[in-house]
Fold this sequence. Notes:
The chain has 371 residues and is of the alpha/beta class. It has a single domain, classed as Aldolase class I (TIM Barrel, Alpha-Beta Barrel). Helix content is 42%, strand content 12%. It has an 8-stranded parallel β-barrel with strand order 1-2-3-4-5-6-7-8, surrounded by 6 helices. The protein is globular. The protein starts with a helix and ends in a 12-residue tail after the last strand.
Amino acid sequence: MFDNIYYNFDWNSISHRIYSAEKENVKHSILSGGTDIDDIINLLSPAADEFLEDMAVKSASITRQRFGNIIQMYTPLYISNLCTNSCLYCGFNRDNSIKRTTLTPEQIKDEADYIYKMGFRHILLLTGEDKNAVSPEKLAEIVSVIHRKFSSISIEVYPMSSEEYTLLINSGVDGLTVYQETYNKDVYSNIHPSGKKRDFNWRLLTPDRGGEAGMRRIGIGPLMGLTDWRVELFFTALHAIYLTKKFWKSQITVSFPRLRNAAGGFQPLSTVSDRDLTHAICVMRILLNDAGLVLSTRESEELRNNLMPLGITMMSSGSKTDPGGHTTPNTSESQFEISDTRTPDELALYIKNRGFEPVWKDWDRDFTGNL
């Protein structure tokens, strides 16, 4: 389990090593593309900043070699914004006075139909972390109704047991996304004052449980803006490398969500510039040649356009972060504000014009027998 690796490293010691790295060592790590601890540290260091152009060229080259010109398109479907946690940074925080709702089966079907008509065949189901509002059994029922419309259904909900993930896989789910938010235990405790999510270790081992259940895709990532992004990405890389080796039949993906405005008015605790985000993406591609790298509509149209060729393989579009946002807008509160508001067709056209290929479907569950 990943905790056996995680607890071998001290946050402050890793920070010191990152900020003490030297340029010559950075050059060696860029050329070697290795994945040992020194390489991760060197590539994330301030000393690597002046080599960002070199890293970008290498990142783009690796991505084209491994993925061709494919950009996978997907969109979220929010089922509920009820939550039992008090995460300070999240609009769904149980202490926020917002409009709450959990979609009915008919409303979920309407949302799914709308998304299907936009062209999407990859969908991400999301809920607030309230197991009573949307239980694993209820989620399995939802998936069993809509899964024939979509070639891939992933979930981003509360952490579950391996047995519960098996239930969902049998209903048609093939992907799991779970963000640790931050790998810094002290910060994690401060920003999660109450609720089940306060259990750092339970969340940390969620990808393990999903992998053991047989998830085809496992996505992780930090919420950038909570801590020093360089140290945060060290632990993210460590986690992704571990998952890649242990669950070699699963595709590992890494996302780079930056904090956005949301109910509650939480402000970032650490600055993450556009250049920093670029640096993070390039490092992850050099370290994780075959990982999917995801960039959501949290980022602006201009930035997503510029970052796409450097290593991104998956992009969301047409996003609504409130339950019922497509068919019954303004009836509940969103989780956060999106920035890139292009329609899916507009994004697909841009991708084509840049010489890339937007892909709405690249997988069919018939391959695994999950019908």
